[in-house]
């Protein structure tokens, strides 16, 4: 069964391609290589022994999207990762984010609406909740006004899909709201490849640990939390990837309760920035050089998932601990810098 993975050479996309291949799916990747490299294909092959089909296509080019679906009429499912995802950049370049994250989604859905039956998995984010009022966060928590154009594109994306599903019973969709993905495949053949200075905590920690960065700045320790630093739900990227395959199989098997469903993907455990640093020091045996600086604007205090729905309805539960995920992130960093 052929599955299209857009953004399949990216961080979460490549790990999902591996898990799809492990389950016997034939995978075709579309990626525009704007934030990834074709070399990632080698890593996927090194793990699974199977080379996915790959086409370099910019999904903003509507005619190219149409042409792709005319040539691949046997695509039974789409997992859509391709999007711009840097929160800070989205504030500076909102139109780039609305064009890249929204128009591409519309073009994909227009092609899927031509099919008798379409299965669509959407890469969403806990960012849609903003600062939720209650922890852990359930899927029923209200979606709050987005704090960035990036977050807004995820909210708008979910609305576009849910409204389309209402009038298109042939379209079956699941939105997966990720908490904080981290780590790398245990083989260290694929992992996170941030371009430039990492915005996210974990790659900045491992790059500091390996000596690429002088010092980690901890953005504030005066938050109303146990140790004053922000709390997040850090989930191993392989656990996240496996959830995508399970969600797609749910749709293919017609097990979905309605043709638009939403699931949180997290571990259910919150970890503070200082606890993440301690985890790095424990698994690497290295002391991390960091200093506390001012808060980063736009940061929320705390976000961690209520995972009951994904556990009970999807039958999925994150397996890795923070230390296991951190060990995989560190092993990957050591491997790519060696
Ligand atoms: C985590 C914590 C920072 C860097 C982002 C996206 C979100 C989602 C997950 C895609 C915060 C602190 C960070 C640093 C630090 N991605 N930090 N020093 O902001 O929770 O969420 O990734 O869907 O949309 O916004 O992740 O890793 O940037 O920050 O102290 O150098 O680490 O203040 O408390 P975030 P993050």
Summary tags:
single chain; Rossmann fold; 11 helices; 18% strand; globular; binds UDP-4-deoxy-4-formamido-beta-L-arabinopyranose
In a few lines, what is going on in this structure?
The chain has 338 residues and is an alpha/beta fold.
Identify the overall geometry. globular
Mean pLDDT, all residues: 97
**Small-molecule binders:** UDP-4-deoxy-4-formamido-beta-L-arabinopyranose
Structural class: alpha/beta
Largest sheet: 7 strands, parallel
Write down how many β-strands occur, each being a DSSP E stretch of 2 or more residues: 13
Number of helices: 11
What's the N-to-C terminus distance? 38 Å
- List unreliable stretches of 5+ residues: none
CATH structural architecture of the domain at 2-182 and 235-265: 3-Layer(aba) Sandwich
Overview of the structural elements:
The chain is an alpha/beta fold. The chain has a domain at 2-182 and 235-265: NAD(P)-binding Rossmann-like Domain (Rossmann fold, 3-Layer(aba) Sandwich). It has eleven helices and 13 strands. It has helices at residues 11-22, 40-48, 62-71, 87-92, 94-112, 149-167, 201-210, 237-252, 273-284, 308-314, 322-337, and strands at 2-6, 26-31, 53-56, 75-80, 118-125, 171-178, 180-182, 216-219, 231-232, 234-236, 260-265, 271-272, 290-293. The strands form four sheets. Strands 3-2-1-4-5-6-11 form a seven-stranded parallel β-sheet, sandwiched between helices. The protein has a two-stranded parallel ribbon with strand order 7-10. Strands 8-13 form a two-stranded parallel ribbon. It is globular and about 55 Å long. The model has no long low-confidence stretch (mean pLDDT 97). Bound molecules: UDP-4-deoxy-4-formamido-beta-L-arabinopyranose.
